[in-house]
Amino acid sequence: MSELELELRTNIKFLVKLGKGGNEIRDMLVQVYRDKAMKKTAVYRWVKRFAEGRESVTDEERSGRPATSRTEENIANIRQIVRDNRLLTVRSIAEQGNVDRETVRKILTDDLDMRKGCAKMVPKEITEEQKQRRVTICQDLLERQDNILSRVVTVDET
Fold first, then answer.
1. Exposure of 26 by Cβ count < 10 A (0-12 exposed, 13-18 middle, 19+ buried)?
2. Which CATH number fits the domain that encloses residue 38?
3. Helical ranges in 1-152 per DSSP H
4. What is the pLDDT of residue 110?
5. pTM value surpassing 0.70
6. 98 in a domain, yes or no?
7. Structural domain span for residue 29
8. Does residue 15 fall inside a structural domain?
9. Where a domain ends, among 93, 108, 123?
10. What phi and psi values does residue 98 have, to the nearest 5 degrees?
């Protein structure tokens, strides 16, 4: 849960204790937080909970099995899949690694520190060698551009 969400819930709890209604609380939140304010239905849900006596602003524990897909083994497997072919989509990586797409996305961005660049996953930082190679390629393209532009013939339309 984000800090903003905790702050919003705390403010709702405070305003409920002051006796404010759902509409009034929602208007105050929009006035202060603008587009980051909670949706109207969420505000009403929290107003109801706090009016019924709830004190905690944090989510309650949920039942169910905890997520176990982000294991070291899966991270290593996905790292190898991406190294073999960086042009794969998240969906195809998920199919190859036998892991759901959201887990693959989290592994790529959080654990492997990668981001999407065009159609392939690339490291967020590049090495000095890669930077120098890019500079060399750009300089070569600039030299070619001058050569191409000198051959263009323009005429006066009058």
1. buried
2. 1.10.10
3. 3-17, 22-33, 40-51, 72-84, 90-97, 101-106, 128-149
4. 84
5. no
6. yes
7. 3-51
8. yes
9. 123
10. 60, 45
Residue 153's pLDDT band, with cuts at 50, 70 and 90, is low
Q: Which residue has the tokens 């120098």?
A: 132
Sequence-distant (≥ 6) Cβ neighbours of residue 26 within 8 angstroms: 37, 38, 40, 43, 44
Closest of 76, 57, 77, 73 to residue 4, by C-alpha: 57
Alpha-carbon span 85 to 97, nearest angstrom: 13
Chain-centre distance for alpha carbon 132: 30
- Whether the CB-CB separation of 11 and 42 falls below 8 Å is answered with no
pLDDT, tens digit (0-9, with 9 covering 90-100), for 41-99: 999 999 999 999 999 999 888 777 666 678 889 999 999 998 888 788 889 999 998 88
Same domain, 83 and 115: yes
Q: How many domains does the chain have?
A: 2
The structure tokens 């073999």 sit at 84
Structure tokens at 83: 């190294």
CB 124 within 8 A of CB 104: no
